[in-house]
Structures are given as C-alpha cells and as structure tokens.
C-alpha cells in the first residue's frame, strides 16, 4: 500500500454519521441530565427521599457521560457541540413544567431515556458498520446504563 | 409539560424517535397484548377507546371514556396511561366561546383530573386566566384537525394558533 492511499485508523473512523450520532447522544444526555436535575430538586411526596437520591446519582452519571462522549468526538478529530441553546435544540427534549406528581417525573424521565436509547442504538450500529469499535463500545456502555435505569424506573411504577 | 406537535405520518411510524409519547392506539395495542394483566372487561373498554381514537371525531366521548378506563387501570399500568395522557393532550383542544355569537378561542387540555367535568372546569379556568371574559361560557372539546400533506400528519388546530397560545 502506498503512503498516499494508506488510511490512518482515525481517518477510517471519522465517519460524519458517527460524529453526528455521537453529538446527538451528547445533546440527549445533556438534556436528560438537566431534566433529571430538575426532578431531583422539585420532586415531592411520600417517595421524596429515595427519588431525590436516585435522581442525584443519575445526573452525576450523566455528567460524567457527556464528558466521555464529547472527548470521543474529539478523538475522532471532530468538534463536540455545546451551549445550552444548541444542545437543547439538537436533543428536542421538552422541559418539565414543575411541579408534577412524583410518578409523572419518573414516567417523563422514562420517555426521555427512551429517546437517548433510540439515538444511541443508531450510533452504535453506525459505529459497528464502520468498524469503529471504540465508539461502539462507548455506546454499548451507555445503553447498558440507560436500559438498567429504565428497568428500575419501570419497576418503581408497577403497583 | 409543553409538547411538540405530533408530526408522525401514521401510527405504524410512531417510534420514540418520531413521537416520544407514542400513539395512544399503539399503547392500547400493547396493553391488550399483555395476557393475564388485563381483564376481559378492561379489554372491552380499551377496544372501545381505541375505536374512538381511530374515529378521531368525538373528543368529549373520548375524554369521558379515557377517564373511566384510567380510573380502573392506571395504578397497574401507570406508564401506559402517562403515554396516552400526553398523546391526548397533544391532540386535543378546548374550544371556548366567550358568548354564543363570539368566535371560539382555543386553549390546551390538561388531563390532570379523572372526570370530564373537572377537566372542563380546569380548561375554563385556564381561559379565564388568559383574560377571556366569559359571559355565557361554552366549552367543547375537539380534536386538532388532521391534514394529510404529502403523506405527513399535521396536528394543526382548526385555526392557526400562535405558539404562545398553546
């Protein structure tokens, strides 16, 4: 293979679809973090203590995740999107009009997690097709966490 | 919670990526398919609600039936009823006439109560807060008009509403 035709590993992985997908998951995760934080502040009712605590654990996890996803975008030699307005517009997630019944916070967060999962699955699949195993691995890790969170939330809503 | 207009072409395309609240009929289908978790009586009510949603013309009757079914089943299927509630709120409007001759004003419908009359009162209060003078108020529920434009579903109301109105 001549030098001019050789592709570096980074060049192989810098697929626009993957970068776009990562940036979308980044925006989703940021928006979900803000919603979870709001739920943490405003939840009321008999389950205040467990919900307040679990929401905190979740927004802390999401805070670490957005950093990891943004750094993956940079590792692919692209730029991460940012700024509250840009992220909110990209994620298209609606904001809570607090106060809500405590179960509605959980149900609305389930819907938000499903949106992240949907976008992360697409990004995982794109990465797999392009042979970008690092991005695929990151998306799988995020999906595992979101799916576990869904399981816990859905279990909570069962009477 | 403010919701975007549903731009989903058909219920079969109603995936979370298109409409995060999912179509109410799809949610009913999922409920009915859960063998052992829904009684025969509840299936009958759900099928009736599904029929009303498919017809999309009797908003009053739909809300009334939804309230009945919700009272019976919500505690066991909270998420399903949350999805249906949000979908309905996204597709219903309350048409308020401030007097018999006046052009109707449209206000959003919030399904925070379990009875159609309580929902009607809440909608009237919402109209009052907007400053509408209600001399002889008449309120009727209506579905947003559905227009098929190049295969897309538009959740447009019967007149153009400013975003601030909704």
Any overview of this molecule?
- The complex is a heterodimer of chains A (159) and B (166).
- In chain A, α2 (16-42) runs antiparallel to α5 and α3 runs antiparallel to α6 (133-157).
- Chain A has helices at 9-13, 16-42, 48-75, 84-91, 102-130, 133-157.
- Helices cover 77% and strands 0% of the residues of chain A.
- Mean pLDDT of chain A is 92; it is low at 1-7.
- Chain A is mainly alpha-helical and 159 residues long.
- Chain B is of the alpha+beta class and 166 residues long.
- In chain B, a hairpin with a 7-residue loop joins β1 (92-97) and β2 (105-108).
- The longest helix of chain B has 16 residues, at 40-55.
- Chain B is elongated.
- The A-B interface holds A 92, 94-97, 100, 103-104, 107-108, 110-112, 114-115, 117-119, 154, 157-159 and B 1-4, 15-17, 20-21, 75-76, 78-79, 82-83, 86.
Structural class of chain A: mainly alpha
Mean pLDDT of chain B: 78
Which structural category fits the helices and strands of chain B?
Answer: alpha+beta
Terminal CA distance of chain B reads 11 Å
Q: How far apart are the first and last residues' alpha carbons of chain A, in Å?
A: 64 Å
Please state the CA-atom Rg of chain A, rounded to the nearest Å. Answer: 18 Å
Cα shape of chain A: elongated
Which pair of protein chains has the largest interface, and what are the residue counts?
A: A-B, 22 and 16 residues
How is the biggest beta sheet of chain A arranged?
Answer: none
Total number of β-strand segments of chain A?
Answer: 0
Specify the number of helices of chain A.
6
- What do the pLDDT scores of chain A average to? 92
Strand content of chain A: under 5%
């Amino acid at each position: 293979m001549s030098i001019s035709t050789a592709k570096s590993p980074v060049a192989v992985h810098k697929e626009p679809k993957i970068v776009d997908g990562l940036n979308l998951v980044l925006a989703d995760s940021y928006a979900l973090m803000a919603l979870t934080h709001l739920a943490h502040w405003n939840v009321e009712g008999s389950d205040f203590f467990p919900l307040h605590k679990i929401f905190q654990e979740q927004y802390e996890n999401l805070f670490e995740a957005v950093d990891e996803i943004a750094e993956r975008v940079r590792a692919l030699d692209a730029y991460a999107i940012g700024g509250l307005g840009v992220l909110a517009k990209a994620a298209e997630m609606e904001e809570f009009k607090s106060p809500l019944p405590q179960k509605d916070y959980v149900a609305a967060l389930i819907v938000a997690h499903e949106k992240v999962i949907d976008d992360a699955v697409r990004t995982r699949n794109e990465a797999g097709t392009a042979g970008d195993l690092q991005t695929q691995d990151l998306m799988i890790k995020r999906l595992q966490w979101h799916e576990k969170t869904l399981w816990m939330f859905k279990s909570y809503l069962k009477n | 919670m403010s919701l975007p207009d549903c731009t989903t072409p058909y219920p079969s395309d109603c995936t979370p990526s298109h409409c995060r609240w999912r179509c109410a009929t799809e949610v009913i289908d999922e409920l009915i398919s859960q063998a052992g978790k829904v009684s025969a009586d509840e299936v009958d009510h759900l099928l009736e609600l599904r029929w009303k949603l498919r017809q999309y013309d009797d908003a009053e009757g739909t809300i009334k039936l939804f309230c009945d079914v919700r009272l019976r089943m919500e505690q066991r299927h909270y998420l399903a009823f949350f999805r249906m509630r949000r979908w309905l709120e996204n597709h219903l409007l309350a048409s308020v006439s401030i007097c018999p001759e006046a052009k109707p004003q449209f206000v959003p419908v919030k399904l925070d109560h379990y009875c159609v009359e309580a929902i009607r009162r809440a909608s009237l209060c919402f109209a009052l807060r907007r400053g509408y003078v209600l001399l002889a108020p008449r309120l009727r529920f209506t579905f947003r008009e559905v227009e098929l434009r190049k295969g897309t579903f538009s959740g447009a109301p019967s007149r153009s509403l400013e975003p601030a109105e909704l």
